């Protein structure tokens, strides 16, 4: 059982990554973003996930610097992720994008760098760049996002290093069982984005019934389901009470029957783009 917010999973290269983190998708630059990151660190979060396309790396960096100082902890105690965007996929352009992200964040290295989407004909060159950054010790771990099984198989045919993470849309309406099993069998840690389905599940009656039994919120039940499935999760929030609520998931455990009931909500329904059919 995952017992607290600082518990970690060990990636296949030996790097330890927190099971739980803060996502900042669509949080604009400004005081709200800086305060959200600072607040999360204050309340024990040790992982933050951003991306170049979010256009908020500078604010995340400011929040991290201030948050670390106020919490009295060192940079190495925080796990930071960013991602290279589709327009920068390519060997040299990916390395340049990494350097740009570091500059905006005001940091010397990232803990995890991901290819954001599997753009056909581009992700292999980008992956070679990530391998170079990793071999040079400029990033602690490398991975992908939104990759399906066939993308992973294609990438690993030529890769020297297999991805350590695959970050995908994952929630009770999109359980991606086959992809999850494939990743487990290949030592790739699955990570969930949009774990709360952008709020669309919060009034679900089945989940509410389970939540009532544990005296928890629906959001807490879903996040607990993620963790018990061995999936790293990064819910987004900018409000302090939500940031606190989201991590109060370590004092209860869902039964096997409850886990199966939640699994049964799957409809293969996405709120984000289909990785096999996207245009951006």
Automatic annotation (TrEMBL):
Chaperone in keyword set: no
Record-annotated active site: 54 (proton donor)
Annotated TM spans: none
Record-annotated NADP-dependent oxidoreductase domain positions: 31-266
Gene3D superfamilies reported in the protein's UniProt record: NADP-dependent oxidoreductase domain
Keyword Oxidoreductase: yes
GO MF entry, a single one: oxidoreductase activity
Binding site for substrate: 116
Site (Lowers pKa of active site Tyr): 83
Keywords: Oxidoreductase
Record family assignment: Belongs to the aldo/keto reductase family.
Entry protein name: Glyoxal reductase
């Amino acid at each position: 059982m995952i017992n607290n917010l600082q518990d970690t999973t060990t990636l296949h290269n030996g790097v330890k990554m927190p099971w739980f983190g803060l996502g900042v998708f669509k949080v604009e630059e400004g005081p709200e973003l800086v305060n959200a990151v600072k607040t999360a660190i204050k309340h024990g979060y040790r992982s933050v996930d951003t991306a170049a396309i979010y256009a908020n790396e500078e604010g995340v960096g400011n929040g991290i610097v201030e948050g670390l100082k106020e919490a009295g902890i060192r940079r190495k105690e925080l796990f930071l992720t960013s991602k290279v965007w589709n327009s920068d996929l390519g060997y040299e352009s990916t390395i340049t994008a990494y350097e740009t992200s570091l500059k905006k964040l005001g940091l010397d290295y990232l803990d995890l760098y991901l290819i954001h989407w599997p753009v056909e004909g581009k992700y292999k060159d980008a992956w070679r760049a990530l391998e170079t950054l990793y071999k040079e010790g400029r990033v602690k771990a490398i991975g992908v996002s939104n990759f399906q099984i066939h993308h992973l198989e294609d990438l690993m045919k030529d890769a020297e290093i297999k991805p350590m993470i695959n970050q995908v849309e994952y929630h009770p309406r999109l359980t991606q069982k086959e992809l999850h099993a494939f990743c487990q069998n290949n030592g790739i840690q699955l990570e969930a984005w949009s774990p709360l389905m952008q709020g669309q599940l919060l009034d679900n009656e089945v989940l509410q019934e389970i939540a009532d039994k544990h005296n928890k919120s629906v959001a807490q039940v879903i996040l607990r389901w993620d963790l018990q499935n061995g999936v790293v999760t990064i819910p987004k929030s900018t409000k302090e009470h939500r940031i606190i609520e989201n991590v109060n998931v370590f004092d209860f455990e869902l039964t096997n029957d409850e886990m199966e009931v939640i699994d049964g909500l799957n409809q293969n329904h996405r709120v984000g783009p289909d990785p096999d059919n996207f245009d951006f």
